Amino acid sequence: MTPVSDPQPRPTPGTSHSRSTRRVFLARGSQAVAGSALAGVALPWVHAAGDSTIRLALIGCGGRGTGAAANALEAPGGPVELVAMADLFEDRLRNSHRSLSEKYGERVAVPAERRFLGFSAYREAIDCLRPGDVALCTTHAAFRAAHVEYAIAKGVHVFMEKTFAPDPGGIQRILRAGEAAEKKNLKIGAGVMCRHSTARQALIQRIREGAMGEIQLIRAYRMDSGYRMGPRQPQEHELYWQIRRPYQFLWASSGIFIELMIHQIDECCWIKDGWPVTAHGVGGRGPDSTDCSQNLDTYSIEYTFADGTKALVTGRYIPKCHNDFATFLHGTKCAAQFSGDIHAPTVQMYKDQRIGREHVAWRPEREKVDPWQAEWNVLLDAIRNDRPHNEARRAAYSNLAAIMGRAAVHSGQIIRWEDALASNSMFCPQVDRLTADSPAPVRADAQGRYPAPIPGACTEI
């Protein structure tokens, strides 16, 4: 499991959009790092007749998981209780438990015997649930499919954080798990939360009604100072060291481009109401880079949709450069902004193609609930009222579109949707069998640098 801090900020539950992050929520609760391991066995539940409490098991206790658990506990509609936690790292679990307990008190009912550690801890935590409860699968992408599959097999609803798989083989597993959940009438919520933004939904409605004409071009940017990594120290356990730094390794969590851009790629697909048929891209590293990770510094991708229109997606992670974090779209009648800095609901239509405050023609009503909270409100309402709710296929397809773009840059080839959808390629086929004694999936060279993709030689689809 890989519960590490998220470079993507997420608003604190119960507030309007802000720069507070799920990581900050964790840090505010506790900075302590304890040395003793917690272990225990799953205890069977005895339910009172008519008990309407939805119980949660948190699998992955970093900033993302802690924030998602808080969103669940904040949701209206009925009682919610956290009853089990699992993680690979004891300090993450301890800090998360302390933070959530301080805020939610007795609703965090996770005694020591229901706090589990290790690669198989997710099973022990899910086994604490009854059918119809919810497993929060909030580790990073390498482990997502195994955790979701186990939860569905146990008759448990799922919330899964992005990203959903690092490679096409993992996406295939998520799709199959989604189909299995559909047959069992189990709900799956997915952490591409912008779909639950009321401001964006309002603009989508206007687009569908023809207010912008035909959408011809979408432009999405996420450019910041970067996430470069130094070499591993010899005394550090290599597998755990890589899992602690998942954004730097393709096998662990897709690499930094998809971790950061999956939301905006999902927005592009939502705007077009379809999936790209091809992806073509370029990227590279700065000449001064000493980065030891597998990431490139720049990613620029041209997606083509079935009607021939384009979406241009740009990621750049280099210090002391112009930064941008926004999505724009251009129709035959006018332009619009779809999202803003740190996924803010900066949604507005312009009078024409000129983008600027002086040209704004329409804005939606202000959001009353941030989308991180809204996605949980919808999921738990669907569970309580037995409404259809399965976001697995849509989330997996958006993730696959992101994988297409990354593969286009890394390989130097044009990647087709049909080829990506048919692929079973995996960075780490043995991921389900990893233990503390397993060798790390990738190894560094003599300079401590891990293998980076080489266009013309690299294959990911």
CATH class of the largest domain: Alpha Beta
What is the annotated CATH architecture of the largest domain? Answer: 2-Layer Sandwich
CATH homology-level superfamily of the largest domain: Dihydrodipicolinate Reductase, domain 2
- Number of individual domains: 2
CATH topology of the largest domain: Dihydrodipicolinate Reductase, domain 2
How much of the sequence lies in strands comes to: 15-25%
Distance between the termini: 25 Å
Overall structural class, as computed from helix and strand content, comes to alpha/beta
Identify low-pLDDT runs: 1-49
State the strand order across the main sheet.
Answer: 14-13-12-11-7-10-9-8-15
Question: Short summary of the structure?
Answer:
By secondary structure, the chain is an alpha/beta fold.
Description:
There is one protein chain. The protein has 2 domains: 190 residues, NAD(P)-binding Rossmann-like Domain (Rossmann fold); 205 residues, Dihydrodipicolinate Reductase, domain 2, CATH 3.30.360.10. The protein contains 13 helices and 15 strands. Strands 14-13-12-11-7-10-9-8-15 form a 9-stranded mixed β-sheet. The chain has a 6-stranded parallel β-sheet with strand order 3-2-1-4-5-6, with helices on both faces. α1 packs across α2. The two termini are 25 Å apart.
